[in-house]
Design a protein that fits this description.
The complex is a heterodimer of chains A (113) and B (113). Chain A has 113 residues and is mostly beta strands. Chain A has no helices and eleven strands. In chain A, strands 2, 4, 5, 6, 9, 10 and 11 form a seven-stranded mixed sheet that branches. In chain A, strands 1-3-8-7 form a four-stranded antiparallel sheet, with no helix packed on it. Classes of the chains: A mainly beta (113), B mainly beta (113).
């Protein structure tokens, strides 16, 4: 298994500002994933982050809005830029140990006012 | 496009009762299916992983079944306890080379003491 630490656990932000979410894993992993869970909705994949290369974004998500860093095999950040109330969601970091079992951090609950 | 549906959206049962949560998916060509538990502020906890070649998996009071041909999975919880109260999520992985999970919206379970 993998232990994932995500910071912050929650935040309330002003519209127009940016928030950077950190994800730390207790072991080296090739791929890290960022998900968004809007209120009452299922989790949606934002992007896949590989160490040493550009993140791969899913349809509907763009790098300018959700820039991602992956400086090493145990750490990644997701920034939510120029926030609006529609960005209020839970953001989750995930890793997969091979294409089998997925593990998740505790999530970041973001409220934009 | 894979779609995952979970029924019911919410369920309330008295303590000690056995219960079944349902998950259906539209594309039967899945690699595996994973059940998670989501607690507020605690992210997702992996409960059971079923590979496409398996029919069921068991862990303690939990039993998950998979009928790939009909696009269905069930999560059976025996002798429910108040500590089982949480949202249960079903997620499918479409291909061996794909790390992406498609999630249902979840079933919110309340176990009444």
């Amino acid at each position: 298994s993998a232990v994932i630490s995500q910071k912050p656990s929650r935040d309330i932000c002003q519209r127009g500002t940016s928030l950077t979410i950190q994800c730390q894993v207790d072991s080296q992993v090739t791929m890290m994933f960022w998900y968004r869970q809007q209120p009452g909705q299922s989790l949606t994949l934002i992007a896949t982050a590989n160490q040493g290369s550009e993140a791969t974004y899913e349809s509907g998500f763009v790098i300018d809005k959700f820039p991602i860093s992956r400086p090493n095999l145990t750490f990644s950040t997701l920034t939510v830029s120029n926030m609006s109330p529609e960005d209020s969601s839970i953001y989750l970091c995930s890793v997969g140990l091979g294409p089998t079992e997925a593990f998740f951090g505790q999530g970041t609950r973001l409220t934009v006012v | 496009k894979q779609e995952v549906t979970q029924i019911p959206a919410a369920l309330s049962v008295p303590e000690g009762e056995n219960l079944v949560l349902n998950c259906s998916f539209t594309d039967s060509a899945i690699y595996n299916l994973q059940w998670f538990r989501q607690d507020p502020g605690k992210g997702l906890t992996s409960l059971l992983l079923i590979q496409s070649s398996q029919r069921e998996q068991t862990s303690g009071r939990l039993n998950a079944s998979l009928d790939k041909s009909s696009g269905r999975s069930t999560l059976y919880i025996a002798a429910s306890q108040p500590g089982d109260s949480a949202t249960y999520l079903c997620a499918v992985r479409t291909g061996a080379g794909s790390y992406q999970l498609t999630f249902g919206k979840g079933t919110k379970l309340s176990v009444i003491p």
